[in-house]
Amino acid sequence: MTLDYPSSAFSFMLFFISSCLLTSVHHSKVPPSEKSTLVNQTKWQYYGTPRTSGNLTVTWNHQMLETKEVNIEVWGYHETGKPYSSSWTAEWKYLYTLKRSHPNRGEFTFVPTPSALYNDWELGALRISSSTASDGQSNVAAIWSNGHALAWHLGEDFRRDSAAWATEKCHQWDTQERDLPGFLEEIDACPCTLAQARADTGRFHTDYGCDIEKGSVCTYHQGAVHCVRSVQASPQYGAGQQCCYDAAGSQVLTGDSIGGSTPDRGHDWGAPPFKKPPRIPGFSHWIYDVLSFYYCCLWSENCSVYFKHRPSSGCRRYHPPRAASAFGDPHLITFDGINFTFKGLGEYSLVESNLTLLRIQGRTQVVKLLSGKEGTEALVTGFSAIAMQENYSDVVEIRIPEHSGSLEVLLNHKALNFSEQTWMDLKGLFLSTTPGLNVTVMFSSGVGVEVSRWKASSLSLTVLLPEKFLNHSQGLFGTINGNPRDDLTFRNGTSLDTDYSTPEDLFVFGADWAIKNETSLFTYDTQHLLDKYLYGPKHDPNFVPVFTPSEDPTDPLVEQMVLLCQSDPFCRFDVLTTRDLAVGNGTKLSHQRYQHLLESLQPGSSERMCQDNGLWSGEPTRCLPNAGSSQQVPPLILTWAILGFMSLWQ
Fold first, then answer.
1. How many Å apart are CA 606 and CA 315, to the nearest integer?
2. Which residues form the VWFD domain (predicted)?
3. Burial bucket for residue 178 (CB in 10 Å: 0-12, 13-18, 19+)
4. What pLDDT does residue 7 have?
5. Given phi > 0 = left and psi -120 to 50 = alpha, else beta, which region is 478?
6. Are 378 and 394 in contact (CB under 8 A)?
């Protein structure tokens, strides 16, 4: 159920009113129980074309509206004015009422008739609200359908010859596209492989219509098993990217297959400031990328026109991000691959960059053992909180709350509740979470941060930096420049020798990156945090950890450690220092995830060259079966190839 606020109808951000946190949710992410369903979606979208007529039915959860009777209204969306000019505006408007005072039993069936007054409105949604409200009344509890093409209310000219009507619309769109500025060079290049696409979490996120984690039901992307969308819209035009991959992990392109992915003039998830086209979440994407697909591909046979303007992007311009990680006791692996252990107690700078004013900070606490007597501590530390900000974005902090084994996420020092949604679009960043297990933060620069607590006593952390951060980072994760020898650099510019540094040297190095209260991003909302971290030293000089654990062959724990850890040095280290196999197992799992991430980010072959020896460079190529580029599109196959509307994929 939603409230209709016309003044903020297209706001796609969180905002505070007094002490109340209101959430504006992209319509594709509204839970199915809280929106209406267009029964037989195919019939709705083809209504009026040959052999598609009769009744249409919409259903809803009647218990969501505490009323005996409802009104079913038609609302429309369109954009007017010259694109990319000050006159370009969006309008979301009540059009007319289909049925008044209909019994609220969760279903309404009707026979559509052309709407002479409103048949130029081709995109819209149904709103179901109490019959006590007046037509089009704002600020009322309501259940909405998904946005959809209003084929069923188009004029008699469409019903007489839908193919001719759509062909004319397709050619009008073709003419308009040729007059609009190109956006293809501005959007992110696609990752070359499926593994890269899933690993580059700072720049790409799962396209819910083709998700390998949910069985790869890619009805609208023939030949693909998984698709991703760019997280951020392009800076000037607000455009979006979509990338799809087959079972072998290779890209599926429109030049090879009708199931290939297509870029978007309007990013499906929108872009700041959101209320201005083409940055309206969902609807701008519909206007410029979806309705045109109906015109050219679904209602007529002019797909070549559509793909001329929406060709799949290759990966020649793609560069994988660089990864750094921290986990366990804690062990840190820098962007250039140096690994070391730093067991300081306090708050430290992990990454700083003047390029985007990026700051990622970590707080450590003494490790509590996972087995044995509850609350037992070891003479080692682990990360208990990670805080971050870029430019003037919101501040996000992920922490292990006191007396809790879960994760808590703070937004600008206030706890977030994920009971309604697990994806949030915040100021300067996106946030996605599996509640209690992991949190992924995606900054507007493409920086990705993942914080998790998988069977571990402490947090594990991975940071992904795009190529533009080369020579623009410092902190415990080092300088990202391809030279590991300068990774252990102090604030004053001097460096430790990476080959001859002792654990004590590394302890001094880590202490140098302690933050100050005036630069801290952390929240201090308990007496313990106030006393220990705000009023206490940022690096506790009185805490002396175990630097080098001894391995006694006669120790019964050693045999169990070898069986668990095998050759993993971090797992063995943590078992010996904590004498807790559960802690070591958590470290081992975190290290394995990091290793898998590095393997996934390895470059693929973006091109193949004929070499002097007569052989081709790069990975072997292969043909896609039945991957013609015919204009004839099966009615159900490509219907939503370019959409981001979850409900049509469920």
1. 6
2. 322-521
3. exposed
4. 36
5. left
6. no
CA distance linking residue 144 with residue 30, whole number of Å: 10
3-class DSSP state of 388:
strand
Helices (runs of H) and strands (runs of E) counted in the chain: 12, 28
The span from the first CA to the last CA of the chain, in angstroms, equals 19
| Per-domain residue ranges of the chain | 2-160, 169-316+636-649, 322-545
Q: How far apart are CA 90 and CA 11, in angstroms?
A: 12
Three-class SS string for 317-384? Answer: CCCCCEEEEEECCCEEECCCCCEEECCCCEEEEEEEECCCCEEEEEEEEEEECCCCCCCCEEEEEEEE
Q: What is the DSSP letter of 514?
A: B
Cα separation, 610 vs 492, whole angstroms: 49
Phi, then psi, of 320 in degrees rounded to 5: -60, 150
Maximum CA pair distance of the chain?
Answer: 90
Dump pLDDT digits (tens) for 482-532: 999 999 999 999 999 998 899 999 999 999 999 999 999 999 999 999 999
Residues near 589 by beta carbon (within 8 Å), at least 6 away in sequence: 454, 455, 456
pLDDT given for residue 24 in this prediction: 65
Q: Taking a C-beta distance cutoff of 8 angstroms, is the pair 312, 251 a contact?
A: yes
Predicted confidence at residue 646, as pLDDT, reads: 29
Long-range CB contacts for residues 112-120, cutoff 8 Å, separation at least 24: 112/47, 112/56, 112/152, 112/153, 113/153, 114/153, 114/154, 114/155, 114/156, 114/158, 114/159, 115/74, 115/153, 115/155, 116/155, 118/74, 118/76, 118/153, 119/153, 119/154, 119/155, 119/158, 120/78
Closest Cα to residue 268, out of 425, 119, 120, 396? Answer: 425
What residues of the chain score a pLDDT lower than 50?
1-19, 606, 623-650
Q: Residue 625: its pLDDT value, please?
A: 45
Helix, strand, or coil (residue 535): coil
Q: Is the Cβ–Cβ distance between 310 and 289 less than 8 Å?
A: yes
Backbone conformation region of residue 157, classed left if phi is above 0, alpha if psi is from -120 to 50, else beta: alpha
Tokens at 174, concatenated: 């073709």
- Residue keyed to tokens 């009769």: 54
Instruction: Enter the DSSP assignment of 65.
Output: S
- ∠ CA 168-153-95, nearest 5°, is 115
- State both tokens at 269: 């998830």
Q: Quick check: helix, strand or coil at residue 473? A: coil
Residue 650: partners with Cβ closer than 8 Å, 6 or more residues away: 32
Give the start-end residues of each E strand in 54-131. 56-59, 69-80, 89-103, 107-110, 123-130
DSSP-assigned letters across all residues of 138-160: SS-EEEE---EE-GGG--HHHHH
- The alpha-helical segments, DSSP class H, found in 84-200 are 156-160, 162-179, 194-199
